[in-house]
Design a protein that fits this description.
Layout: E1 7-10, E2 16-18, H1 19-23, E3 27-33, H2 40-52, E4 59-65, H3 69-76, E5 88-91, H4 94-104, E6 111-115, E7 121-125, E8 139-144, E9 149-154
Parallel strand pairs: 3-4, 4-5
Antiparallel strand pairs: 1-2, 1-5, 3-6, 6-7, 8-9
Protein name: Alkyl hydroperoxide reductase Thiol specific antioxidant Mal allergen
Keywords: Cytochrome c-type biogenesis, Disulfide bond, Redox-active center
Main location: other
Length: 170
């Protein structure tokens, strides 16, 4: 399954992009969120921390706010030190969110979509359903017994996982 090609607006530049354009050629973790979600800031904190981890240097981290453009900007740019600065932030219009919900099968946020570098969705779901430690592009440290130094290896894409979420509205 591939990501639907939907319009986005970059929160930092106001540039119009599409979902497939922003993930093209990259192992990517996308977090769909809303400004009213109480769990979303913690999820974005976790992803921003992961984005700073050298094991994830081959993974792109993207947030897509699905409800309020100005509200998303206010949250991200609240202080002199912007929140979640190691991620790219986009806004999706509510009607496009409805298309994404239908195609990707989500009914609540935060909702993650993990893609490999060819644009294939390898995982999707809520925080309890997606294994963010097992994403394509993550460097896996393995002990090299010959010289007792860790070797780095890029993780393979896991098989796609599809989960049905309960009927929560957002």
């Amino acid at each position: 399954m591939t990501l639907p090609d939907l319009p986005l607006r970059c929160l930092s530049s106001a540039e119009s992009r599409t979902t497939t354009d922003v993930v093209s050629g990259c192992n990517t973790i996308i977090d769909f969120w809303t400004t009213k979600c109480t769990r979303c800031p913690d999820a974005l904190d976790k992803l921003d921390k992961m984005a700073q981890d050298p094991q994830y240097k081959e993974v792109k981290f993207i947030s897509i706010c699905c409800d309020q453009l100005d509200g998303a900007r206010e949250i991200i740019e609240k202080d002199d030190n912007p929140r979640w600065s190691h991620m790219a932030h986009y806004f999706m219009e509510p009607n496009d969110k409805e298309t994404a919900k239908k195609v990707l099968g989500f009914k609540s946020v935060p909702f993650y979509v993990v893609l490999d570098n060819t644009g294939n969705i390898v995982q999707k779901g809520g925080a309890s359903k997606v294994d963010l430690d097992n994403v394509p592009g993550k460097l896996v440290m393995e002990e090299n017994k010959e010289n007792s130094k860790p070797d780095q290896k890029i993780a393979e894409a896991p098989e796609e996982r599809v989960f049905v979420l309960d009927d929560l509205e957002f």
